[in-house]
Protein backbone atom coordinates (compact mmCIF):
# COMPACT_ATOMS: atom_id res chain seq x y z
CA UNK A 1 0.00 0.00 0.00
CA UNK A 2 1.33 3.44 -0.82
CA UNK A 3 1.61 6.36 1.56
CA UNK A 4 -1.30 8.37 0.16
CA UNK A 5 -3.82 5.54 0.37
CA UNK A 6 -2.66 4.65 3.89
CA UNK A 7 -2.90 8.26 5.08
CA UNK A 8 -6.38 8.59 3.65
CA UNK A 9 -7.54 5.50 5.56
CA UNK A 10 -5.97 6.67 8.80
CA UNK A 11 -7.15 10.27 8.59
CA UNK A 12 -10.77 9.08 8.78
CA UNK A 13 -10.04 7.28 12.05
CA UNK A 14 -8.35 10.13 13.89
CA UNK A 15 -8.82 13.66 15.15
CA UNK A 16 -6.86 16.40 13.38
CA UNK A 17 -4.45 16.57 16.33
CA UNK A 18 -3.85 12.83 16.38
CA UNK A 19 -3.42 12.86 12.60
CA UNK A 20 -0.71 15.52 12.94
CA UNK A 21 0.95 13.30 15.58
CA UNK A 22 0.80 10.42 13.09
CA UNK A 23 2.52 12.53 10.41
CA UNK A 24 5.22 13.41 12.95
CA UNK A 25 5.72 9.75 13.89
CA UNK A 26 5.94 8.86 10.20
CA UNK A 27 8.71 11.39 9.53
CA UNK A 28 10.58 10.34 12.68
CA UNK A 29 10.24 6.66 11.81
CA UNK A 30 11.60 7.17 8.29
CA UNK A 31 14.58 9.06 9.70
CA UNK A 32 15.29 6.36 12.32
CA UNK A 33 14.85 3.57 9.77
CA UNK A 34 17.38 5.22 7.49
CA UNK A 35 19.80 5.79 10.34
CA UNK A 36 19.60 2.30 11.83
CA UNK A 37 19.03 0.24 8.70
CA UNK A 38 15.40 -0.78 9.13
CA UNK A 39 13.09 -1.27 6.15
CA UNK A 40 11.98 2.29 5.38
CA UNK A 41 8.73 1.33 3.61
CA UNK A 42 7.66 -0.93 6.49
CA UNK A 43 8.57 1.75 9.01
CA UNK A 44 6.51 4.28 7.07
CA UNK A 45 3.40 2.06 6.94
CA UNK A 46 3.68 0.93 10.57
CA UNK A 47 4.00 4.55 11.67
CA UNK A 48 1.04 5.68 9.60
CA UNK A 49 -1.17 2.97 11.08
CA UNK A 50 0.24 2.79 14.63
CA UNK A 51 -2.61 4.71 16.33
CA UNK A 52 -5.36 3.49 13.98
CA UNK A 53 -7.54 2.22 16.85
CA UNK A 54 -6.90 5.14 19.22
CA UNK A 55 -10.49 6.40 19.12
CA UNK A 56 -12.42 3.14 18.99
CA UNK A 57 -15.03 2.87 21.72
CA UNK A 58 -13.79 0.98 24.79
CA UNK A 59 -16.58 -1.57 24.46
CA UNK A 60 -15.54 -2.39 20.91
CA UNK A 61 -11.89 -2.76 21.96
CA UNK A 62 -12.84 -4.93 24.93
CA UNK A 63 -14.94 -7.12 22.64
CA UNK A 64 -12.05 -7.60 20.21
CA UNK A 65 -9.60 -8.42 23.01
CA UNK A 66 -11.95 -11.12 24.26
CA UNK A 67 -13.09 -12.54 20.91
CA UNK A 68 -9.56 -12.63 19.48
CA UNK A 69 -8.12 -14.28 22.58
CA UNK A 70 -5.66 -11.48 23.28
CA UNK A 71 -3.95 -11.53 26.71
CA UNK A 72 -6.88 -11.07 29.05
CA UNK A 73 -4.75 -9.31 31.71
CA UNK A 74 -4.79 -6.35 29.30
CA UNK A 75 -8.33 -5.70 30.48
CA UNK A 76 -7.13 -5.26 34.08
CA UNK A 77 -4.78 -2.48 33.01
CA UNK A 78 -5.38 1.01 31.66
CA UNK A 79 -7.52 1.15 28.53
CA UNK A 80 -4.85 3.37 26.93
CA UNK A 81 -2.93 0.14 26.34
CA UNK A 82 -5.68 -1.48 24.31
CA UNK A 83 -5.42 0.52 21.08
CA UNK A 84 -2.07 -1.07 20.20
CA UNK A 85 -3.07 -4.78 19.96
CA UNK A 86 -6.57 -3.87 18.80
CA UNK A 87 -5.01 -1.61 16.18
CA UNK A 88 -2.88 -4.44 14.81
CA UNK A 89 -6.03 -6.54 14.48
CA UNK A 90 -8.10 -3.81 12.81
CA UNK A 91 -5.34 -2.69 10.46
CA UNK A 92 -5.22 -6.23 9.10
CA UNK A 93 -8.97 -6.62 8.95
CA UNK A 94 -9.97 -3.18 7.69
CA UNK A 95 -6.93 -1.92 5.82
CA UNK A 96 -5.70 -5.28 4.55
CA UNK A 97 -2.16 -4.97 5.88
CA UNK A 98 -0.86 -8.53 6.28
CA UNK A 99 2.85 -8.07 6.86
CA UNK A 100 3.63 -9.56 10.28
CA UNK A 101 6.53 -7.22 11.03
CA UNK A 102 4.35 -4.17 10.45
CA UNK A 103 1.46 -5.61 12.45
CA UNK A 104 3.80 -6.52 15.34
CA UNK A 105 5.32 -3.04 15.42
CA UNK A 106 1.79 -1.67 15.77
CA UNK A 107 0.82 -4.34 18.33
CA UNK A 108 3.78 -3.57 20.60
CA UNK A 109 4.12 0.19 20.08
CA UNK A 110 2.78 1.08 23.55
CA UNK A 111 4.24 -1.63 25.81
CA UNK A 112 7.18 -2.90 23.82
CA UNK A 113 7.91 -6.62 24.21
CA UNK A 114 10.72 -8.97 25.07
CA UNK A 115 12.82 -9.40 21.95
CA UNK A 116 11.77 -6.21 20.19
CA UNK A 117 12.71 -6.20 16.52
CA UNK A 118 14.53 -3.34 14.84
CA UNK A 119 11.20 -2.20 13.38
CA UNK A 120 9.45 -2.43 16.79
CA UNK A 121 12.13 -0.17 18.27
CA UNK A 122 11.94 2.34 15.43
CA UNK A 123 8.17 2.72 15.83
CA UNK A 124 8.28 2.78 19.65
CA UNK A 125 10.92 5.49 19.61
CA UNK A 126 9.42 7.51 16.75
CA UNK A 127 6.14 7.62 18.70
CA UNK A 128 8.03 9.04 21.67
CA UNK A 129 10.29 11.60 19.96
CA UNK A 130 8.18 12.89 17.05
CA UNK A 131 8.44 16.68 16.79
CA UNK A 132 5.02 17.32 18.37
CA UNK A 133 5.90 15.60 21.67
CA UNK A 134 6.61 17.82 24.66
CA UNK A 135 7.30 15.25 27.42
CA UNK A 136 9.83 16.34 30.07
CA UNK A 137 13.13 14.79 29.01
CA UNK A 138 12.15 14.25 25.38
CA UNK A 139 15.00 16.41 24.06
CA UNK A 140 17.53 14.18 25.81
CA UNK A 141 15.96 11.15 24.18
CA UNK A 142 16.06 12.92 20.79
CA UNK A 143 19.79 13.45 21.26
CA UNK A 144 20.37 9.84 22.33
CA UNK A 145 18.38 8.69 19.28
CA UNK A 146 21.12 10.14 17.08
CA UNK A 147 23.71 7.86 18.71
CA UNK A 148 22.07 4.65 19.95
CA UNK A 149 18.68 3.17 19.12
CA UNK A 150 18.72 0.81 22.11
CA UNK A 151 19.76 3.48 24.61
CA UNK A 152 17.12 5.86 23.29
CA UNK A 153 14.38 3.21 23.60
CA UNK A 154 15.56 2.45 27.14
CA UNK A 155 15.40 6.15 28.06
CA UNK A 156 11.92 6.51 26.58
CA UNK A 157 10.75 3.42 28.51
CA UNK A 158 12.33 4.64 31.73
CA UNK A 159 10.64 8.04 31.37
CA UNK A 160 7.29 6.37 30.66
CA UNK A 161 7.58 4.04 33.67
CA UNK A 162 8.62 6.89 35.97
CA UNK A 163 5.77 9.03 34.63
CA UNK A 164 3.25 6.28 35.32
CA UNK A 165 4.64 5.66 38.80
CA UNK A 166 4.50 9.35 39.67
CA UNK A 167 0.85 9.32 38.67
CA UNK A 168 0.39 6.25 40.90
CA UNK A 169 -0.72 4.26 37.89
CA UNK A 170 -0.20 0.56 37.41
CA UNK A 171 2.55 -0.39 34.99
CA UNK A 172 1.68 -3.17 32.56
CA UNK A 173 4.08 -6.11 33.08
CA UNK A 174 5.15 -6.19 29.40
CA UNK A 175 6.40 -2.63 29.82
CA UNK A 176 8.74 -3.74 32.63
CA UNK A 177 9.71 -6.89 30.77
CA UNK A 178 10.63 -4.91 27.67
CA UNK A 179 12.70 -2.49 29.72
CA UNK A 180 14.53 -5.30 31.56
CA UNK A 181 15.15 -7.19 28.34
CA UNK A 182 16.77 -4.18 26.65
CA UNK A 183 18.79 -3.23 29.72
CA UNK A 184 20.20 -6.73 30.02
CA UNK A 185 20.97 -7.00 26.31
CA UNK A 186 22.51 -3.54 25.97
CA UNK A 187 25.86 -2.48 27.21
O1 LIG B 1 -0.94 6.51 21.60
P1 LIG B 1 0.10 7.53 21.97
O2 LIG B 1 -0.43 8.58 22.90
O3 LIG B 1 0.75 8.14 20.78
O4 LIG B 1 1.27 6.80 22.78
P2 LIG B 1 1.41 5.31 23.35
O5 LIG B 1 0.59 4.37 22.55
O6 LIG B 1 2.85 5.03 23.46
O7 LIG B 1 0.89 5.41 24.85
C1 LIG B 1 -0.43 5.65 25.18
C2 LIG B 1 -0.59 5.82 26.66
O8 LIG B 1 -0.37 4.61 27.34
C3 LIG B 1 0.31 6.84 27.31
O9 LIG B 1 -0.52 7.77 27.99
C4 LIG B 1 1.13 6.12 28.31
C5 LIG B 1 0.33 4.88 28.54
N1 LIG B 1 1.13 3.70 28.89
C6 LIG B 1 2.24 3.26 28.27
N2 LIG B 1 2.73 2.17 28.88
C7 LIG B 1 1.89 1.90 29.91
C8 LIG B 1 0.86 2.87 29.91
N3 LIG B 1 -0.13 2.89 30.81
C9 LIG B 1 -0.14 1.94 31.77
N4 LIG B 1 -1.09 1.97 32.68
N5 LIG B 1 0.83 0.99 31.84
C10 LIG B 1 1.85 0.92 30.94
O10 LIG B 1 2.71 0.04 31.03
FE1 LIG C 1 -0.39 4.77 20.60
FE1 LIG D 1 4.73 5.06 22.75
FE1 LIG E 1 1.22 7.45 18.86
From TrEMBL:
Q: Which keywords does UniProt give here?
A: Hydrolase, Iron, Metal-binding, Nucleotide-binding
At the top level, the lineage of the source is Bacteria
Domain called HD: residue spans: 18-132
Q: Which reaction does it catalyse?
A: P(1),P(4)-bis(5'-adenosyl) tetraphosphate + H2O = 2 ADP + 2 H(+)
Q: Name one GO molecular function term.
A: bis(5'-nucleosyl)-tetraphosphatase (symmetrical) activity
Q: What is its EC number?
A: 3.6.1.41
Q: Which enzyme class? A: hydrolase
The name this protein goes by in its record: bis(5'-nucleosyl)-tetraphosphatase (symmetrical)
| Chain's gene name | yqeK
